[in-house]
Design brief:
By secondary structure, the protein is of the alpha+beta class. About 40% of the residues lie in helices and about 30% in strands.
């Protein structure tokens, strides 16, 4: 069974967009080269809110990307700039955007920034 990973990030301030974009671009480029990635999609929900969904051959492939140096740099910076949700599950296909956002809202694990 393949693995779906969903994320939603809500920037604490519109001023954080530049810092976010630096990490988002680097992480997307790294993901596109990652072993096991089948599909990646991202969406700006607003200036301050962004979401991604990715489909991986296995959960192990997704975890290898997650723990890679490019994504770890983004994770390290995350608490200073955003809050958000993450959710992952086994499936052979990506959900629609409305379904993905619903899953994140109701089943996602909440990530908080350093301000709470």
């Amino acid at each position: 069974m393949q693995y779906v990973s969903l994320t939603r990030l809500d920037l604490g301030s519109p001023w954080h967009i530049w810092r976010f974009m630096k990490h988002a671009i680097a992480s997307k480029q790294d993901a596109m080269r990652a072993d096991g990635l089948i599909r990646l999609d991202s969406k700006a929900l607003s200036l301050k809110s962004h979401a991604t969904m990715s489909l991986w051959q296995t959960r192990k492939h997704m975890i290898a990307f997650l723990h890679g140096p490019v994504h770890l740099a983004a994770i390290k910076d995350f608490p200073r700039i955003a809050t958000g949700q993450v959710h992952g599950y086994e499936s052979d296909h990506l959900p629609s955007w409305p379904q993905a956002l619903e899953l994140l809202t109701h089943q996602g694990r909440t990530l908080k920034n350093s301000r709470g």
